[in-house]
Design goal:
This protein has nine helices and ten strands. It is α+β, with helices and mostly antiparallel strands and 292 residues long. The chain has three domains: 90 residues, no CATH class; 48 residues, SH3 type barrels (Roll); 81 residues, Alpha-Beta Plaits (2-Layer Sandwich), CATH 3.30.70.100. The strands form three sheets. The chain has a five-stranded antiparallel beta sheet. Helix 3 packs across helix 6 and helix 8 packs across helix 9. The radius of gyration is 34 Å and the shape is elongated.
């Protein structure tokens, strides 16, 4: 029986390099077992991380980053060991193909930059899954941070795939990095002569009437400036609904306009007064010159 098993495991499936290299059944089974162990290891790590998250000892973003880094590390080791099992010695391959690797490095330098940026993002967790970020005035929720690209779902429900180096080298706003509610502002101007106390009350009522505006911290109203054509006010409010905040702002503007109309508060449009210092200067000096 033992000899039979050894014969099966030693059966040659394929050979190359004039017979110098070959793949045996035992080597193939060893590779399969390695990948199964890698899969089992990642399942156990994922289960452990999810348990830690449920116990609130680990936030979801950090857990996601740890799982991604562990996945890349485990599969890299598994692939290297698998190549060694089937007779490919990595050190020999690297030494004999230096020129090829240099050429690949030059041709794929942008890809390598994205990979390095991916490791930086996963290690630092400056951007992770679930964050609301703004990149080049595009706001969206991070769906996944991969090794080369990051997937972003915009407010228009469009999937945006960004190279990772763009997120590490460009200016990026992360609205949820501090894990707190975010403050937003709506600017509005009213006509000169308006009752400023009434304006403040109406703006606060509009904010209090919206269910997506947080009650704590409470909304604020600032009398920001005396504008050219209006008294300028700023309504400040806090909200947890970051991705759909433009819809909330639109709702508030509808409420503000309705309350202003009901209470006789006017939102002015830009006006210019033209003063003529001496009207006689506009009259022609010699009216006869304009006649035929």
């Amino acid at each position: 029986m033992k000899e039979k098993v050894e014969q099966i495991l030693g059966f040659e499936l394929i050979s190359w390099g004039n017979g110098e290299h070959h793949l045996l059944v035992g080597e193939l089974l060893a590779v399969v077992v390695l990948f199964l162990l890698a899969k089992l290891t990642l399942l156990l790590v994922k289960k452990f991380i999810n348990r830690r998250i449920k116990r609130t000892r680990l936030d979801e973003g950090r857990g996601y980053a740890i799982l991604q880094l562990t996945t890349y590390f485990v599969y890299t080791i598994t692939i290297l060991l698998s190549l060694d099992f089937v007779g490919f010695h990595i050190t020999v391959i690297l030494a004999s193909s230096t020129a090829l690797l240099v050429g690949l490095g030059l041709g794929l330098q942008d890809v390598f930059k994205d990979w390095v940026a991916g490791f930086v993002l996963l290690a630092e967790r400056s951007i992770t899954a679930g964050d609301i970020v703004e990149v080049d005035k595009i706001v969206g929720e991070v769906e996944q941070v991969g090794l080369r690209t990051t997937i972003l779902r915009t407010r228009d429900d469009i999937i945006l795939v960004l190279p990772n180096q763009r997120l590490t080298s460009n200016y990026v706003i992360n609205w949820t990095q501090n894990k707190k509610t975010t403050r937003f502002a709506i600017d509005v101007g009213v006509a000169y002569g308006s009752d400023t106390s009434l304006v403040k009350r109406l703006l606060l009522e509009a904010a209090d009437n919206h269910n997506l505006v947080n009650k704590h911290p409470s909304p604020l109203v600032f009398f920001s400036d005396f504008g050219n054509s209006s008294l300028d006010f700023k309504l400040l409010f806090f909200s947890d609904e970051l991705l759909t905040i433009e819809r909330t702002k639109s709702d508030l503007r509808f409420l503000i306009d309705k309350k202003f109309r009901e209470n006789g508060v006017t939102i002015p449009f830009p006006q210019r007064d033209l003063w003529i210092k001496n009207p006689k200067d506009l009259q022609p000096q010699n009216p006869e010159s304009f006649t035929d």
